[in-house]
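Protocol step 4 of 5: obtain the predicted structure for the target chain.
Materials: sequence only (see below). No template structures provided, no constraints applied. The aim of this step is simply to have a reference model before the mutagenesis design in step 5. Sequence pasted as it appears in the construct record:
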Amino acid sequence: MKTKTKIIILISIILLLLLSLYLYFENNYLQVSNYTIESNKIPKAFNGFKIAQISDFHNTKSKKLTNDLIKEIKNSKPDIIVLTGDLIDSYKLDINTAISFVKKINRVAPVYYVTGNHEARIESYEKLKDKLEENKVIILDDKLEIIKKDNSEINLIGIEDPSFNFNTYLDDATIIQDSLMLVQYAKNNFSILLSHRPELIETYAKNNFDLVLSGHAHGGQIRIPFIGGLVAPNQGLFPKYTNGIYEKDNTKMVVSRGIGNSILPFRVNNRPELVVIKLENK
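Step 4 output (structure tokens):
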């Protein structure tokens, strides 16, 4: 074998190893994103109130990622933990892995959960739901939970993913709007909505939610510098809502990049993310 050929092969092997290490890092090393949400509607009693948000867990098999996630949740000392859909993955379903994770975090703070499109795809959703309830997870399927502190309160509302309405001709925005109409809550309270779908921000803003916590987009899966995410479900190429805080009228929406992967098995420039939100009276 010629020396030139050997050098090319060696360089190719080194590049392949570097690429493998990079992809391992991008898909297994957690990033914690901290946001502060200010509003004069937030009661002073809720100053410093922390919410840890986990989205799109997709029953990940990465022990390193899961252990780091649990560690960082504990370190953040949240008042509540919210799971904003796709706790499991319909293509590689493993309910036990998802429940094992839940058992470890429900010792830290109360856990609230809404469904994603992957829950709607599985026949065993009722089994998952039962196991979540057995582990003290509060399931918000088109429901209101009032969070109280001292003599003050805020609203926490959760909406079932529109994929559960698979027998209807209605579009997702109409399904969500119909669901929201059924939830009665005090509009003067600071109101947080848990909903898996970020692309429906106009519907959330129309209903005057102060804060929406969402996921689903996986950060655009592959993030291109200065451009953003490449592709996201229900948004297509170069999606608008993939990561961080967005505002529409009086509504702020935080979109988590999520934890696991689904159809596409890897992330690029888009590490798994734990979101920690702090509320402040402005």
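Step 4 remarks: The chain has one domain: 3-281. The longest strand covers residues 31-39.
Proceed to step 5.
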